[in-house]
Automatic annotation (TrEMBL):
Transmembrane segments: none annotated. CDD domains: Cas3''_I. The lineage of its organism: Bacteria, Bacillati, Actinomycetota, Actinomycetes, Bifidobacteriales. This is HD domain protein. Residues 9-197 form the HD Cas3-type domain. It holds the Pfam family HD. The keyword Hydrolase applies. It comes from the Bacteria. It comes from Bifidobacterium pseudocatenulatum. Coiled coil: none annotated. The keyword Hydrolase applies. Signal peptide: none annotated. Keywords: Antiviral defense, Hydrolase, Metal-binding. InterPro entries: CRISPR-assoc_Cas3_HD, CRISPR-assoc_Cas3_HD_sf, HD_domain.
Length: 214
């Protein structure tokens, strides 16, 4: 069965593979610097749509929009990747944040009283919750040709580059954390822009042409 990402008002469809790769290419293309973290985010942002329950909803048109979760599963995929160094851990946390919340506001990583952290919500128990159909999604990933390992390694280089540049600025500890927060928002922005741009061009049936700044 061909997995779908979108269906327009006329009944036209966009495959999930096309949407993920298109969004990945767009997210990478906006700027050459720090391009692989947003590419990775875009490649995984909608993998929750692999689930049969989402495919049935999309094809039938029955059900409420947003009723079937499909964002958090991409963060689960990231969480399952092997981590070998501190840069990889930073990439993982950025991706978990932006993918899980690409349909809503970025969350605080910890609540006001400090007893609840967003990034602890990717446990095996979370992944086994039937509403996410994560086992089914992991099996369906092979058909999407996402090349995750190589892209993740390139994303690690983005982090090494970012950390190296901030060190040159000789920032205070608080300022380094602030810059890291800006990097998260920057990756999030590129993901949202890529996702919505590809979806919009599918719906309008127009050809995307990048705008070159002078």
């Amino acid at each position: 069965m061909t997995l779908l990402a979108h269906k327009d008002a006329d009944g036209g469809v966009q495959t999930l593979r096309d949407h993920l790769h298109n969004a990945g290419d767009l997210a990478e293309s906006y700027e050459s610097e720090f391009s692989q973290i947003p590419r990775m985010a875009a490649l995984l942002h909608d993998v929750g749509k692999v689930a049969q329950q989402f495919q049935t909803y999309l094809i039938s048109g029955k059900g409420r929009r947003g009723e079937i979760p499909h964002a958090r599963q991409g963060a689960f995929v990231v969480n399952d990747l092997p981590i070998s160094n501190s840069a990889a851990e930073i990439v993982k946390e950025i991706l978990e944040l932006v993918i899980a919340k690409h349909h809503g506001e970025l969350p605080d990583c910890i609540n006001e009283i400090g007893d609840e952290a967003f990034l602890t919500g990717f446990t095996e128990a979370d992944k086994q919750n039937p509403k996410y159909a994560y086992g089914e999604i992991k099996q369906g990933l092979h058909d999407l040709d996402l090349d995750l390992q190589d892209t993740f390694q390139q994303a690690e280089k983005d982090v090494f580059d970012f950390v190296g540049r901030t060190k040159l600025l000789k920032l205070s500890k608080d300022s380094r954390y602030f810059y890291s927060g800006l990097l998260v928002k920057y990756v999030y922005s590129r993901l949202i822009d890529a996702d919505r741009t590809d979806t919009a061009y599918f719906e309008t049936k127009e050809q995307y042409h990048p705008i070159k700044a002078d």
